[in-house]
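Page 47, continued from p. 46.
Same chain as before, 300 aa.
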Amino acid sequence: MEWLNYHHLLYFWWVAREGTVARASAELRLAQPTISGQIRQLEGALGEKLFARKGRNLVLTDTGRVVYGYADEIFSLGRELLEAVKGRAPQRPLRLMVGVADALPKPIARLLLEPALRLGQPVRLICREDRPVEEFLAELAVFALDVVLSDAPAGPGIAVKAFNHLLGECGTSFFASKEIAAARRSGFPGSLDGAPLLVPGDGSSLRRVLEQWISSQDLRPTIVGEFDDPALMNAFGEDGVGIFAAPTILEAELRRRHQVEVVGRVESLRQRFYAISVERKLTHPAVIAIRESARRDLFR
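Result:
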Protein backbone atom coordinates (compact mmCIF):
# COMPACT_ATOMS: atom_id res chain seq x y z
CA MET A 1 0.00 0.00 0.00
CA GLU A 2 1.28 3.47 -0.89
CA TRP A 3 1.53 5.98 1.95
CA LEU A 4 1.55 9.76 1.73
CA ASN A 5 4.21 11.62 3.71
CA TYR A 6 2.16 14.28 5.50
CA HIS A 7 5.25 16.30 6.43
CA HIS A 8 5.97 16.74 2.72
CA LEU A 9 2.32 17.66 2.17
CA LEU A 10 2.43 20.23 4.98
CA TYR A 11 5.49 21.98 3.52
CA PHE A 12 3.83 22.03 0.09
CA TRP A 13 0.67 23.51 1.65
CA TRP A 14 2.61 26.31 3.33
CA VAL A 15 4.49 27.23 0.15
CA ALA A 16 1.23 27.23 -1.83
CA ARG A 17 -0.32 29.56 0.75
CA GLU A 18 2.66 31.92 0.99
CA GLY A 19 3.62 31.96 -2.69
CA THR A 20 7.37 31.58 -2.14
CA VAL A 21 9.69 29.15 -0.36
CA ALA A 22 11.29 32.09 1.46
CA ARG A 23 8.05 33.20 3.11
CA ALA A 24 7.10 29.62 3.99
CA SER A 25 10.58 29.14 5.44
CA ALA A 26 10.11 32.16 7.71
CA GLU A 27 6.74 30.89 8.94
CA LEU A 28 7.94 27.34 9.55
CA ARG A 29 11.39 28.40 10.83
CA LEU A 30 13.07 25.91 8.55
CA ALA A 31 15.87 26.35 6.02
CA GLN A 32 14.75 26.97 2.45
CA PRO A 33 16.72 23.99 1.02
CA THR A 34 14.95 21.72 3.51
CA ILE A 35 11.51 22.82 2.33
CA SER A 36 12.47 22.70 -1.35
CA GLY A 37 13.84 19.17 -0.91
CA GLN A 38 10.69 17.97 0.85
CA ILE A 39 8.51 19.33 -1.97
CA ARG A 40 10.67 17.62 -4.59
CA GLN A 41 10.19 14.35 -2.73
CA LEU A 42 6.41 14.89 -2.73
CA GLU A 43 6.48 15.59 -6.48
CA GLY A 44 8.54 12.44 -6.98
CA ALA A 45 6.06 10.36 -4.98
CA LEU A 46 3.12 11.78 -6.95
CA GLY A 47 4.89 11.72 -10.30
CA GLU A 48 3.71 15.25 -11.10
CA LYS A 49 5.05 18.80 -10.89
CA LEU A 50 3.11 20.84 -8.33
CA PHE A 51 4.59 24.30 -8.94
CA ALA A 52 5.62 26.44 -11.88
CA ARG A 53 7.74 29.57 -11.50
CA LYS A 54 6.22 32.95 -12.39
CA GLY A 55 8.71 35.73 -11.80
CA ARG A 56 9.84 35.44 -8.20
CA ASN A 57 6.75 33.57 -7.13
CA LEU A 58 5.63 29.96 -7.44
CA VAL A 59 2.21 29.24 -8.92
CA LEU A 60 0.31 25.99 -8.71
CA THR A 61 0.07 23.72 -11.72
CA ASP A 62 -3.28 22.07 -12.52
CA THR A 63 -2.20 19.05 -10.47
CA GLY A 64 -0.93 21.38 -7.75
CA ARG A 65 -4.35 23.00 -7.44
CA VAL A 66 -5.98 19.61 -6.98
CA VAL A 67 -3.41 18.56 -4.36
CA TYR A 68 -3.76 21.90 -2.56
CA GLY A 69 -7.53 21.44 -2.29
CA TYR A 70 -7.05 18.05 -0.65
CA ALA A 71 -4.25 19.33 1.60
CA ASP A 72 -6.37 22.26 2.75
CA GLU A 73 -9.18 19.89 3.71
CA ILE A 74 -6.82 17.44 5.41
CA PHE A 75 -5.27 20.09 7.67
CA SER A 76 -8.64 21.69 8.33
CA LEU A 77 -9.91 18.31 9.53
CA GLY A 78 -6.80 18.01 11.69
CA ARG A 79 -7.62 21.28 13.43
CA GLU A 80 -11.22 20.14 13.94
CA LEU A 81 -9.94 16.87 15.42
CA LEU A 82 -7.88 18.72 18.03
CA GLU A 83 -10.84 20.95 18.91
CA ALA A 84 -13.14 17.94 19.20
CA VAL A 85 -10.76 16.11 21.54
CA LYS A 86 -10.52 19.24 23.70
CA GLY A 87 -14.32 19.50 23.78
CA ARG A 88 -14.44 22.85 22.00
CA ALA A 89 -15.55 21.73 18.54
CA PRO A 90 -18.63 23.48 17.14
CA GLN A 91 -20.97 21.70 14.76
CA ARG A 92 -18.88 20.67 11.79
CA PRO A 93 -19.83 22.79 8.77
CA LEU A 94 -20.92 21.30 5.48
CA ARG A 95 -18.20 21.98 2.91
CA LEU A 96 -19.19 23.22 -0.53
CA MET A 97 -16.37 23.36 -3.09
CA VAL A 98 -17.43 25.43 -6.11
CA GLY A 99 -15.66 26.30 -9.34
CA VAL A 100 -16.88 29.58 -10.85
CA ALA A 101 -16.16 29.80 -14.58
CA ASP A 102 -14.24 32.91 -15.62
CA ALA A 103 -16.94 34.11 -18.04
CA LEU A 104 -19.74 33.91 -15.45
CA PRO A 105 -20.58 37.41 -14.13
CA LYS A 106 -19.69 37.59 -10.43
CA PRO A 107 -23.09 39.08 -9.43
CA ILE A 108 -24.79 36.04 -11.01
CA ALA A 109 -22.44 33.71 -9.10
CA ARG A 110 -23.27 35.50 -5.85
CA LEU A 111 -27.02 35.29 -6.44
CA LEU A 112 -26.74 31.60 -7.27
CA LEU A 113 -24.61 30.79 -4.21
CA GLU A 114 -26.56 32.72 -1.58
CA PRO A 115 -29.15 29.95 -0.97
CA ALA A 116 -26.35 27.53 -0.07
CA LEU A 117 -25.59 29.72 2.94
CA ARG A 118 -29.20 29.65 4.13
CA LEU A 119 -29.55 25.90 4.67
CA GLY A 120 -30.16 26.13 8.39
CA GLN A 121 -26.81 24.47 9.14
CA PRO A 122 -23.26 25.80 9.03
CA VAL A 123 -21.79 25.78 5.51
CA ARG A 124 -18.18 26.46 4.59
CA LEU A 125 -18.16 27.83 1.05
CA ILE A 126 -14.90 27.50 -0.89
CA CYS A 127 -14.82 29.15 -4.32
CA ARG A 128 -12.26 28.58 -7.05
CA GLU A 129 -12.47 31.23 -9.75
CA ASP A 130 -11.29 32.70 -13.03
CA ARG A 131 -10.65 29.59 -15.09
CA PRO A 132 -12.57 28.17 -18.04
CA VAL A 133 -14.94 25.27 -17.41
CA GLU A 134 -12.61 22.78 -19.08
CA GLU A 135 -9.89 23.40 -16.48
CA PHE A 136 -12.30 22.70 -13.64
CA LEU A 137 -13.50 19.35 -14.98
CA ALA A 138 -10.41 17.43 -13.86
CA GLU A 139 -11.07 18.62 -10.31
CA LEU A 140 -14.71 17.55 -10.58
CA ALA A 141 -13.59 14.10 -11.68
CA VAL A 142 -11.50 13.54 -8.52
CA PHE A 143 -14.13 15.20 -6.28
CA ALA A 144 -11.92 18.17 -5.46
CA LEU A 145 -14.98 20.23 -6.47
CA ASP A 146 -18.65 19.57 -5.81
CA VAL A 147 -20.01 21.67 -8.67
CA VAL A 148 -19.00 24.17 -11.35
CA LEU A 149 -21.18 27.20 -12.13
CA SER A 150 -21.03 28.37 -15.73
CA ASP A 151 -22.74 30.41 -18.42
CA ALA A 152 -22.35 27.48 -20.83
CA PRO A 153 -22.70 23.69 -20.59
CA ALA A 154 -19.72 21.39 -20.61
CA GLY A 155 -19.26 20.52 -24.25
CA PRO A 156 -19.09 17.13 -25.94
CA GLY A 157 -15.82 15.33 -26.48
CA ILE A 158 -14.40 16.02 -23.01
CA ALA A 159 -12.50 13.30 -21.16
CA VAL A 160 -14.55 13.72 -17.96
CA LYS A 161 -18.12 12.49 -17.83
CA ALA A 162 -20.05 15.54 -16.65
CA PHE A 163 -23.73 16.39 -16.42
CA ASN A 164 -25.21 19.82 -17.14
CA HIS A 165 -28.04 20.96 -14.87
CA LEU A 166 -29.85 24.00 -16.28
CA LEU A 167 -30.44 26.52 -13.49
CA GLY A 168 -32.39 29.02 -15.57
CA GLU A 169 -32.31 31.53 -18.37
CA CYS A 170 -33.17 35.15 -19.03
CA GLY A 171 -33.08 37.79 -21.71
CA THR A 172 -30.35 40.36 -22.31
CA SER A 173 -30.31 44.07 -21.48
CA PHE A 174 -28.01 46.72 -22.93
CA PHE A 175 -26.53 49.31 -20.57
CA ALA A 176 -24.62 52.56 -20.91
CA SER A 177 -23.83 55.77 -19.07
CA LYS A 178 -26.73 58.17 -18.63
CA GLU A 179 -25.65 60.34 -21.56
CA ILE A 180 -25.16 57.49 -24.04
CA ALA A 181 -28.35 55.72 -22.92
CA ALA A 182 -30.39 58.88 -23.47
CA ALA A 183 -28.94 59.28 -26.96
CA ARG A 184 -29.37 55.63 -28.02
CA ARG A 185 -32.60 54.56 -26.30
CA SER A 186 -34.89 55.87 -29.03
CA GLY A 187 -35.17 53.48 -31.98
CA PHE A 188 -33.51 50.58 -30.15
CA PRO A 189 -32.20 48.15 -31.37
CA GLY A 190 -31.55 50.02 -34.61
CA SER A 191 -29.88 52.75 -32.56
CA LEU A 192 -26.99 50.33 -31.91
CA ASP A 193 -25.89 50.76 -35.53
CA GLY A 194 -22.62 52.71 -35.37
CA ALA A 195 -22.75 52.89 -31.57
CA PRO A 196 -19.64 52.21 -29.43
CA LEU A 197 -19.94 48.67 -28.09
CA LEU A 198 -18.09 46.80 -25.35
CA VAL A 199 -18.16 43.03 -25.77
CA PRO A 200 -17.11 39.98 -23.72
CA GLY A 201 -14.00 38.00 -24.66
CA ASP A 202 -14.02 35.10 -27.09
CA GLY A 203 -14.49 32.53 -24.32
CA SER A 204 -17.90 33.86 -23.32
CA SER A 205 -21.12 32.28 -24.55
CA LEU A 206 -22.66 35.77 -24.51
CA ARG A 207 -20.09 36.88 -27.10
CA ARG A 208 -21.22 34.15 -29.49
CA VAL A 209 -24.97 34.78 -29.19
CA LEU A 210 -24.41 38.54 -29.26
CA GLU A 211 -22.52 38.37 -32.54
CA GLN A 212 -25.22 36.14 -34.06
CA TRP A 213 -27.97 38.52 -32.97
CA ILE A 214 -26.14 41.62 -34.25
CA SER A 215 -25.68 39.92 -37.62
CA SER A 216 -29.37 38.89 -37.76
CA GLN A 217 -30.39 42.52 -37.11
CA ASP A 218 -27.99 43.80 -39.80
CA LEU A 219 -26.35 46.11 -37.25
CA ARG A 220 -22.80 47.43 -37.47
CA PRO A 221 -21.78 48.81 -34.07
CA THR A 222 -18.21 49.95 -33.47
CA ILE A 223 -16.50 47.53 -31.08
CA VAL A 224 -14.28 49.69 -28.88
CA GLY A 225 -13.29 47.07 -26.29
CA GLU A 226 -13.19 43.33 -25.58
CA PHE A 227 -13.04 42.08 -21.99
CA ASP A 228 -12.53 38.67 -20.41
CA ASP A 229 -13.59 40.17 -17.07
CA PRO A 230 -17.28 41.25 -17.07
CA ALA A 231 -16.70 43.54 -14.07
CA LEU A 232 -14.02 45.49 -15.96
CA MET A 233 -16.32 45.79 -18.97
CA ASN A 234 -19.06 47.18 -16.70
CA ALA A 235 -16.63 49.72 -15.25
CA PHE A 236 -15.71 50.99 -18.72
CA GLY A 237 -19.42 51.22 -19.53
CA GLU A 238 -19.94 53.30 -16.39
CA ASP A 239 -17.18 55.67 -17.57
CA GLY A 240 -19.04 56.31 -20.82
CA VAL A 241 -16.73 54.36 -23.12
CA GLY A 242 -19.53 52.36 -24.72
CA ILE A 243 -22.64 50.20 -24.46
CA PHE A 244 -22.45 46.71 -22.94
CA ALA A 245 -24.79 43.74 -22.63
CA ALA A 246 -25.59 41.78 -19.47
CA PRO A 247 -28.28 39.38 -18.17
CA THR A 248 -31.59 41.16 -17.63
CA ILE A 249 -31.88 39.80 -14.08
CA LEU A 250 -28.91 42.02 -13.15
CA GLU A 251 -30.60 45.28 -14.17
CA ALA A 252 -31.27 46.55 -10.65
CA GLU A 253 -27.79 45.66 -9.40
CA LEU A 254 -25.92 47.15 -12.36
CA ARG A 255 -27.91 50.38 -12.19
CA ARG A 256 -27.18 50.66 -8.48
CA ARG A 257 -23.51 49.63 -8.52
CA HIS A 258 -22.35 51.24 -11.77
CA GLN A 259 -24.73 54.18 -12.20
CA VAL A 260 -25.65 53.01 -15.71
CA GLU A 261 -29.02 53.10 -17.46
CA VAL A 262 -30.86 50.59 -19.64
CA VAL A 263 -30.68 51.34 -23.35
CA GLY A 264 -32.99 48.48 -24.32
CA ARG A 265 -33.92 44.85 -23.74
CA VAL A 266 -33.93 41.82 -26.05
CA GLU A 267 -35.90 38.90 -24.63
CA SER A 268 -35.00 36.66 -27.58
CA LEU A 269 -31.28 37.05 -26.81
CA ARG A 270 -31.27 34.30 -24.17
CA GLN A 271 -28.54 33.64 -21.63
CA ARG A 272 -28.47 30.30 -19.81
CA PHE A 273 -26.73 29.28 -16.63
CA TYR A 274 -25.68 25.82 -15.52
CA ALA A 275 -24.49 23.77 -12.57
CA ILE A 276 -22.06 21.14 -13.86
CA SER A 277 -21.40 18.01 -11.81
CA VAL A 278 -20.25 14.42 -12.19
CA GLU A 279 -23.62 13.31 -10.83
CA ARG A 280 -26.62 12.67 -13.03
CA LYS A 281 -28.79 13.35 -9.97
CA LEU A 282 -27.57 16.02 -7.57
CA THR A 283 -27.11 14.85 -3.97
CA HIS A 284 -25.15 17.58 -2.17
CA PRO A 285 -27.70 19.51 -0.03
CA ALA A 286 -26.16 22.90 -0.81
CA VAL A 287 -26.03 22.25 -4.57
CA ILE A 288 -29.67 21.12 -4.48
CA ALA A 289 -30.54 24.38 -2.67
CA ILE A 290 -28.75 26.35 -5.40
CA ARG A 291 -30.68 24.59 -8.16
CA GLU A 292 -34.08 24.80 -6.50
CA SER A 293 -33.75 28.46 -5.53
CA ALA A 294 -32.51 29.40 -9.02
CA ARG A 295 -35.45 27.71 -10.71
CA ARG A 296 -38.07 28.82 -8.20
CA ASP A 297 -36.97 32.39 -7.46
CA LEU A 298 -34.09 33.81 -9.47
CA PHE A 299 -35.21 32.74 -12.96
CA ARG A 300 -38.94 32.33 -12.32
